[in-house]
From TrEMBL:
HTH araC/xylS-type domain ranges (all copies): 143-242
Identification of the protein by name: AraC family transcriptional regulator
Domain of life: Bacteria
SUPFAM superfamilies: Homeodomain-like (SSF46689)
Keyword terms, alphabetized: DNA-binding, Transcription, Transcription regulation
Organism classification: Bacteria, Pseudomonadati, Bacteroidota, Cytophagia, Cytophagales
InterPro entries: AraC_XylS_family_regulators, Homeodomain-like_sf, HTH_AraC
Coiled-coil annotated residue ranges, if any: none
Matching Pfam families: HTH_18
Gene Ontology terms for molecular function: DNA-binding transcription factor activity; sequence-specific DNA binding
Amino acid sequence: MHVQLDPRAPRVVNPYPTNPEQCLFFYARDPIEVFNYSKRQEITSPHSVIVGPQVARVNLRMGYNQLTIKVGFQPGGLFRLFRTPMWQLLDQTVDSYDLVGREINQVNEQLREINDYAQMIVLVETYLLSKVAAHKIDAHAVDKVARLMLQSHSRQYSLDWLADQACLSPRQFERRFLERIGMSPKLFMRVVRFAQAYRLKDRQPELDWQDIVHQCGYYDQMHLIKDFKLFAAVTPTILLKEEAASPLRLFAGSPF
């Protein structure tokens, strides 16, 4: 994503509620400022960061020349690549250098010199594929079950059934899940349902909230509002207003 804003205009905050994705971000032009709701503090992000499992909302204040490359990982992928227990990264934005070392700085420096988007993607993919080849760590059954839990129909499955699919006892399943995904299976399913709810409303604004409650498997609207206050720190209506004012929405036609 490349967004260039008028430097005479005030910098606008972009809300990022909880979601189940774990990512590696590269900021190849201006730095970005991150306000973490769990820590109640704002930091200037390094040029490359690893974002682990997220429960608390964050706000991102972009620079005027914001070029971001995002690498999203399948469940368990970040653990397999960096061998760091994911619970240690809960609600953390970590400088990639701290986990990878100076080699990531070389990628950052090259990205700042490149102006072609396709070349940037090739550079990042080449780096990551070299890491994958060096580790050669197979996926665990927990990773496959976590991918299943990302699907809407997974709400019909009990945690005992999911543990059985991973060939683990419920206690073993929870321990491995914390290590590889970074939160308990129950919390992960709750995060997945919340993310499905607000993305569904974003894609289909004509739906009313009762439709969202029904389609996403909430018991009632009060339970949905409770999750919004926990994971987005605001009510559903306020979150939609904040996202509508985001530069990422205003500049949706920018090159991706």
